[in-house]
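>> received
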Amino acid sequence: MTEKKIPIHQRTFAFLKKRIYGIGRFFKRIWAHPKGKIGLSVVGLLVIVAVFAPWIAPYDPYDVADRTTKGLTPSLQHPLGTTINTGQDVFSMLIYGTRISLIVGVTAGVSIAFVGAILGVMAGYIGGFADNLIMRTVDVLLVIPSLPLVIVLTNVFGRDYWIIIFIFVALGWGGLSRNIRSLVLVIKNSNYVKAAELAGASRWRIMTKHILPGTSHLLIMSTALGSAGIMVAEAGLSFLGLGDPTRISWGRMLADAQGGGALLFGHWWWIIAPGIGIFLAVFSFMRIGIVMEEVLNPRMKQSTGIHKIFRSLSGKHIDEVFESMDEKTGLAATGRSASKA
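>> returned
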């Protein structure tokens, strides 16, 4: 009797159910950590604000037609006041700026992880010409000053945020790919990879099915930390006037505050608001990245410098050290007496 073939929709549903269950368990482990609970809470709040920005923001931040509301101080009608030069509501600008910062940070962080993982696995597993080409490209990217190159590229290709994301990805995958390559050089000599090679699996299948999952802990942690770094970089570019002039971001709010004389006229809330937004976003993503590393690599917590310092201060560890020294001294003395005999 032949086995009954499972319909494709049932297999797809079972696959999705398994993946969703695994993701849910992973986030549950992060939520159980105190640092992860803080990070997930702040990121979740930022995501809600970004998604429901049109309903949360009391005014349209892109509307500059009302010239009678310039330079207003914080009030019930305008919680963070209005801009000095255009009369835009600062609180509404802060809400809409969450969208751009999250889109740029998360999209660039995930893309950098994807490109760095693929090229790093290829360099470490295939070796030869591919390894030399990828690593020499990484060497060039790491020595080129990034800021002047970004200024040139934005002037050539434009300042749309999708172009800025592309520039971040093109310049940011090098360091991750080198770390992935070092890890792959160890993984490719493992028994299960050798067994897959003996079974006749193709290089692509071995790289994607057997080696790439072994680097997942590094990729997930790098994505979270990389997203935080990209948010800071985007804010810096916008502050320098290199961002998209048609979109509101936290960095552009800081640039507008400087150009509008916020400090000169005492409108400090115009500067503090986007600064707090950048700090919360970066802080939360860094918390999540650190917790992900501890969850996926439990040995990291036991090998940190702080743990080693406190362990070295404990009397038990000092006794163990002296006992090991006594054992080595005794063995050495026994060896010398045996040689004289």
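>> Residues 302-315 have pLDDT under 50 and may be disordered.
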